[in-house]
Amino acid sequence: MKEKLSIEHIQLNVNSSKIHCIKAGRGKELLLAFHGYGERCSMFLPVANKLPERYTLYAIDLPIHGESEWKGKKIKGEIFVDIVQQILKKEKANRCSLMGFSLGGRIALYLTEKIPYLIHNIYLIAPDGIVTSSIYRNVQRVPDICKRVSFKLLVNKYSLKLAKRLHKRGWLNHHNYRFTEVHFATAKKRRRLLIYWMALDGFDPNWKKTQKLIKEHQIKMKIFLGTHDEVIPSSAGRILTEGLDNAEIVFLNSNHRMMNRVFFKRVENLL
Prior knowledge:
Blueprint (H helix, E strand, L loop, with lengths): L6 E8 L2 E8 L4 E6 L10 H6 L4 E6 L17 H14 L4 E6 L1 H12 L4 E7 L8 H8 L2 H11 L2 H12 L5 H10 L3 H13 L7 H10 L3 E7 L8 H7 L5 E6 L5 H4 L5 H4 L1
Parallel strand pairs: 3-4, 3-5, 5-6, 6-7, 7-8
Antiparallel strand pairs: 1-2, 2-4
């Protein structure tokens, strides 16, 4: 009979806020996992369930997600560095591996750029932050007041009606429509979206620099991409792995929600 997985709930103090983590597994390899926007850290529990002897998993609830609190004005990339360093100190470990899904992939890349000497392996699942349009990058450079005004104009309860019309006519793909439907729905959710919209430039990874650091520090990297992903194009993996011997791309028959469908069925062989 398989032993039941033991789960420990841990709170870290970061910038007067509380970050909630779950710890599971008893393996020698320390694995820190960051979920996607609108998700919860519990989505990673199947990794510890299937590989309890290989990993000690710390899955982190991002600020304003799950059981994590956030009292600061703006989320900055430095808080994720602080989280990693606190966990390493708590576990008396010198290095760790990172796993990130979607927005969590962006965070994992940012951490690899900032503290490569602490990273062993990185597993990126449909990662955000590799391929971004010139429009997006230009928008991120404008003053915060302009970002806030444009957000208020584009993201409101009336946008839901417009998104529904565009989706019906085939001008808005299903994923983007569902994102609008879920995250524009209430004032509380719109506020969270605004905070992250204002914060993204604070942990926007420089993938060219990251490539060099991955090579220099001999970090092993696996990127998992869905063949039907409407959000992250397949070119994302090729861009990041170019010229790297320790990098591998794995394509899964899935859309962007591969964490709920395909990934965990094969996780023992994939990692």
